Amino acid sequence: MTTSTLQRSLGVHRVLEPAGVLPQAAQRLDADPAIGPDEVRIAVQRINLDAASYRQLTEEHGGDGDRVRAAVLEIVESRGKMHNPVTGSGGMLIGVVDEVGPDSPLGLRPGQRVATLVSLTLTPLRITDGLARWDGRSEQVPAAGTAVLFARSIAAVLPDDLPQEVALAVLDVCGAPAATERVVRRAGHRPSVAVLGAAGKSGSLSLAAARDARAGRLIGVVRNGQEADALRSAGLADEVVVADATDPLAVAAAVGRCVDVTVVCVDVPGAEHGAVLTTADGGTVLFFSMATSFSAAALGAEGMASDVTMLVGNGYTPGHAALALDLYRRSRGVRALIEPRVRG
Ligand code: NAP
Questions:
Q1: Is residue 11 a contact partner of residue 23, using CB atoms and an 8 Å limit?
Q2: Would you tell me which of 108, 133, 280, 321 could form a disulfide with 258, CB atoms 3.0–4.6 Å apart?
């Protein structure tokens, strides 16, 4: 592949500034809906804001839905993509394939309903309805507009058997169960696992994936008694404990004996030290949360003389979408925790 073919396949031709970077690192993208020969245009129906991004915007604007909506519109308008400048995160979207360039390798056909599995932080996006059908109070945003996929993007055709809101929520976090499954399988014989934010979407899917991967003791760490009750009745963990994930000593005390694998699925900053402290030497911490600080994790582990391997939760693992949807279909407990969040 020539350099220019590689650049096009990654969407570098859509970067307006600074020139030459990849679309994810760009300040601004060209969101023109006219596509090139290797691109695909999606007619957008619904956007799923990343949980950390939605929480940050809601907190910044004091829970005022109109201001949150205006902030999202302003980000998309000025950046040509939904890339929260504070959290650095985006989300994903669903829509209908509108036009497929003759050289697109994605195998999509006009009329298919798809979810984009690449982050909104690198997806050229134009919104045409002013988000008029959204009250600014949910992660899921009904929207009209266009998005562009590159040759190296990924999209999944939406399943017929699940409501689109559910599919969108599950696919948004499908990297978490896939990564958890891989880490647990590689961690040796029946490793103990703790999941922080265990009653959330990625947390519940990660617990179910860890169980499938033959984890040993499985601990769900949640924020309060209400989430603890919900997680207990979902039956996804052997032990459910309540602790503020941002309080390291509270997390360590609640979990007790250190675990082999810790998966961080909260949507707030500050969970790095608790995760490290509760993980045994030689163990692994998987940071799926987009609110994770690399420096806090690295320097915190050093400061605790903790010999843990720390992994950034890659949003992409081959087969991740099918794995997450399959877990959702098979696990009553996962459905019980995710459905109420999607219904809002
Ligand atoms: P979610 O469904 O909102 O779940 C987050 C959970 O964490 C909720 O149960 C929440 O409780 C809990 N929580 C919040 N603060 C807490 C605290 N201080 N102590 C204990 N628990 C706390 O979110 P999600 O959609 O699963 O997303 C989780 C994270 O994954 C986010 O940071 C998101 O950005 C990230 N993410 C990463 C990728 C990737 O590719 N790596 C992709 C998508 C999302 P409440 O509901 O009570 O607040």
A1: yes
A2: 280
Residue 198 CB–ligand 1 contact under 6 Å: no
Sign (positive or negative) of CA dihedral 25, 246, 175, 119:
negative
Q: 170 CA distance to ligand 1 centroid (A)? A: 13
Residue type, 245: A
Q: Closest ligand 1 atom to the C-alpha of 292?
A: 32
Helices 175-186 & 201-212 angle (0-180, nearest 10): 30
Residue 51 Cβ inside 6 Å of ligand 1? The answer reads: yes
Ligand 1 within 6 A of CB of 248: no
Angle, in degrees to the nearest 10, between helices 320-330 and 201-212: 90
What pairs with residue 93 in β-bridges? 47
Q: Tell me the C-alpha distance between 71 and 61, whole Å.
A: 9
Q: CB of 89 closer than 6 A to ligand 1?
A: yes
Q: Residue 57's closest CA among 47, 46, 43, 44?
A: 47
Sequential pLDDT tens for the chain (344 residues): 777 889 999 999 999 999 889 999 999 999 999 999 999 999 999 999 999 999 999 999 999 999 999 999 999 999 999 999 999 999 999 999 999 999 999 999 999 999 999 999 999 999 999 999 999 999 999 999 999 999 999 999 999 999 999 999 999 999 999 999 999 999 988 999 999 999 999 999 999 999 999 999 999 999 999 999 999 999 999 999 999 999 999 999 999 999 999 999 999 999 999 999 999 999 999 999 999 999 999 999 999 999 999 999 988 999 999 999 999 999 999 999 999 998 76
Element (H, E) at 183: helix 175-186
- For ligand 1, pick from 265, 292, 311, 316 the residue to mutate: most ligand atoms within 8 Å of CB: 265
Q: Tell how far the Cα of 311 is from the centroid of ligand 1, in angstroms.
A: 17
Query: Could you tell me if the CB of 289 is within 6 A of ligand 1?
Result: yes
